[in-house]
Amino acid sequence: MIKQEKTLRYLESHIPEMAASAVTQAFWQALASGNSVLESRDGAIYETSPDGSQKKVKSIAAPTTVTLGEKRRLK
Predict the structure, then answer these.
(1) Distance (Å, rounded) from C-alpha 56 to C-alpha 35?
(2) CB 57 within 8 A of CB 44
(3) Cα separation of 32 and 26, whole Å?
């Protein structure tokens, strides 16, 4: 394996943790700038305000479980 390929694989293996870090940073930056943030958890959408208060906005359907490699057709 050439050096570039090893480097690329190493960087790709860290994409999930970098993405999680970016989402967390964006969440806190939005609140720090005075904006509210919408979050999906426990079968609902919640609005988190900069003061830390949370309000349930809407109930939503449970997530769809998909097996790795499974193909789905959207209607």
Answers:
(1) 16
(2) yes
(3) 10
Rounded to an integer, what distance in angstroms lies between the CA atom of residue 55 and that of residue 58? 9
Distances in Å between the Cα of 32 and the Cα atoms of 18, 22, 35, 47 are 21, 15, 7, 15
How do residues 31-59 score in pLDDT, each as one tens digit? 999 999 999 998 999 999 999 999 999 99
Whole-prediction pTM? 0.69
Angle, CA of 66, 39 and 11, to the nearest 5°? 60
What pLDDT, on the 0 to 100 scale, is given for residue 63?
82
Nearest Cα residue to 61 out of 75, 38, 45: 45
Phi, psi dihedral angles at 13 (to 5 degrees): -70, -20
Characterise 42 by phi-psi region: left (phi > 0), alpha (psi -120 to 50), beta (else): left
